[in-house]
Amino acid sequence: MTQLVMITGASAGLGEQLAYAFARRQMRLLLLGRDHQRLAKVARQAARLTTAPVAILATDLLNDNGRSAWRRCVARCGVPDILVNNAALPGFGAINDLSLAEAQKVLQLNTAVPLTLSQLFIQDHYWTRRPSYLINLASAGGELPLPYAAFHSASKAALLGFARGSRFELQVTQIHLMTVIPSLLATGHFQQQTAPYLKANSLIAQLLAHSQLDPAKVAKKIVTSALRGQQILRLPLAYQWLAAFNRLAPRISRKIIAQPYRTR
Ligand SMILES: NC(=O)c1ccc[n+]([C@@H]2O[C@H](COP(=O)([O-])OP(=O)(O)OC[C@H]3O[C@@H](n4cnc5c(N)ncnc54)[C@H](OP(=O)(O)O)[C@@H]3O)[C@@H](O)[C@H]2O)c1
To answer: Does the record bear rRNA-binding in its keywords (predicted)?
Structure first.
């Protein structure tokens, strides 16, 4: 039987590219997002790349942290062999500027939803002997001291904690959990969320703007790495060094990272 992949946040950005990358592997797809029209468009494009069925489910995951979406997906297509927890809100902004409601939404969509779906996935696969793959999209912000990103960082750090805390239990199963930790992706967040907090004419800010990753390439790398059983995927290569440097010399790292940001 062809493997079934469920992708949250598949109507745009990296999730859309992941749909195409899995379609090229001839896997069955179940694409989730709120915007029915955009999902249908992605599904049509994915269907050109595969002979396997492509289904969509337009749903707001904030309704009940994804529980009813999971039930509907399983009832319609069966338990997915691969779950990609990709949907998220950027969550950038000064703590003082974000409303309580905005911050709550970030914590819910970026943390409660993927961890609820992760638990449901693990419970349904715990005793099965065929391999299954759980892919959680974290962020470099989950481990680096990024200014004006407290809720983003907190929401994504929880996924890193889940990976550490579940490793002991998952090692006796056939469930492979991979946590993806990308730096900037070229999906529009940099311009909308980060750029307003950066100093004008900062060289580092300009370098950042030019170092955004191509979501199609990232999607391809995620698929190959997950199916190989990799547990952590930091992207790009240069970010792996920065993350290591951050662990070794956190004070210096914090100063360098803060350099392009405006103080208020
Ligand atoms: N962009 C970056 O620089 C960056 C860096 C590091 C990590 N990441 C992570 O990579 C992943 C993808 O990022 P991206 O830039 O591709 O995001 P994006 O372009 O903003 O797409 C987010 C997706 O989530 C869906 N979504 C939003 N709210 C939802 C809700 N309430 N219920 C269901 N779906 C919802 C959106 O679809 P609808 O609008 O149709 O609901 C959309 O498909 C995220 O987990 C992000 O945190 C991104």
So the answer is: no
| Residue 206, domain member (yes or no) | no
Is residue 262 included in any domain, yes or no? no
Residue at 223 is within a domain: yes
State how many domains the chain has: 1
Smallest CA separation from ligand 1 atom 25, residue:
9
Q: Which residue's CA lies nearest to atom 48 of ligand 1?
A: 185
pLDDT per residue as tens digits for the range 189-215: 877 888 888 888 888 888 888 889 999
Q: What is the pLDDT of residues 72-127, one digit of tens each?
A: 999 999 999 999 999 999 999 999 999 999 999 999 999 999 999 999 999 999 99
204: in domain: no
Q: How far is the CA of 128 from the centre of ligand 1 (A)?
A: 30
Domain of residue 134: give its range.
Answer: 4-188+214-255
The 3-state secondary structure of the chain reads CCCEEEECCCCCHHHHHHHHHHHHCCCEEEEEECCHHHHHHHHHHHHCCCCCCEEEEECCCCCCCCHHHHHHHHHHHCCCCEEEECCCCCCCCCCCCCCHHHHHHHHHHHHHHHHHHHHHHHHHHCCCCCCEEEEEECCHHHCCCCCCCHHHHHHHHHHHHHHHHHHHHHCCCCEEEEEEEECCECCCHHHHHHHHHECCCCHHHHHHHHCCECHHHHHHHHHHHHHCCCCEEEECHHHHHHHHHHHHCHHHHHHHHHCCECCC
